From TrEMBL:
This is HTH marR-type domain-containing protein. It comes from the Bacteria. The lineage of its organism: Bacteria, Pseudomonadati, Pseudomonadota, Gammaproteobacteria, Moraxellales. Signal peptide: none annotated. Keywords: DNA-binding, Transcription, Transcription regulation. It comes from Psychrobacter proteolyticus. InterPro entries: HTH_MarR-typ, Metal_resp_HTH_trans_reg, Tscrpt_reg_MarR-type_CS, WH-like_DNA-bd_sf, WH_DNA-bd_sf. The keyword Transcription regulation applies. SMART domains: HTH_MARR.
């Protein structure tokens, strides 16, 4: 397989996944931007998260994350509480309404997974994960050795 063929296949897979996921999110009735969804997921999956920790994890500008967090606060999907370990920051957590949205996002992701893997065996899926993880790790390890 040539590099161009691999490149094109990966590019098509990425776009197919993104388009399917956006369709699943639309079907669930979630009307948030991609940045707001990623930020909400950051709050959900990272206990004791702060604006700074989410911006570092997402590798985004803190001002951009702050805008997304303000949107999520206004939509009553998250709330802020005082950080007992650092008075300069606030801890973020989901509200019950935010948990409902996360349930819908999880359903959209499951629907997307089912669409992509419906004709694959468990062995093929496991092989895909192994190969994908190796490719990701190859890039991660080259970044640390290049410095």
């Amino acid at each position: 397989m040539s590099n161009n063929s691999l490149s094109e296949t990966l590019h098509q897979l990425m776009h197919t996944y993104t388009n399917l996921l956006l369709e699943g999110i639309r079907q669930q009735g979630v009307e948030l931007s991609v940045t707001n969804i990623r930020t909400l997921k950051g709050v959900c999956y990272n206990p004791n998260s702060t604006a700074l920790s989410i911006s570092k994890h997402m590798q985004r500008d803190k001002a951009q994350i702050t805008r997304a967090l303000n949107d999520l606060l206004a939509a009553e999907l998250i709330l802020k509480t005082d950080n007992p370990l650092d008075g300069r920051s606030q801890l973020l957590q989901l509200t019950p309404k935010g948990e409902e949205v996360m349930t819908k996002l999880d359903a959209a992701e499951e629907w997307t997974r089912q669409q992509l893997t419906k004709d694959l065996s468990l062995v093929e899926i496991a092989l895909f994960f192994r190969v994908s993880r190796t490719m990701i790790d190859n890039v991660g390890s080259s970044k640390t050795t290049d410095k």
